[in-house]
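Quick start: read one record
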Amino acid sequence: MNLAAHIPGEPHLFGWYLGFAIAFAIIVVIVVEVQAILMLARKIGTQAQSAIEGLEQIFTNTTPLADLQTTVNHARAIVEGMLGVRKGLGG
């Protein structure tokens, strides 16, 4: 069977059919690729949300560290006062 055979008096449509088949195949490939991209984007979005929640928890847990310098300054003042008392007592 010759698919490209032309019957006299009939329009030659093989090129159109071939073009439609190729276009359909290309559209199917593009739809599959777009679907894969969208699924990957959704997965990345879910992971990003989890990362944001983790960072918020870290921020909450480490906020008191900003006051650590105040604690160090108070401890330094206490130690200096104790050294002054020790010197005053002759030690």
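The mean pLDDT is 89.
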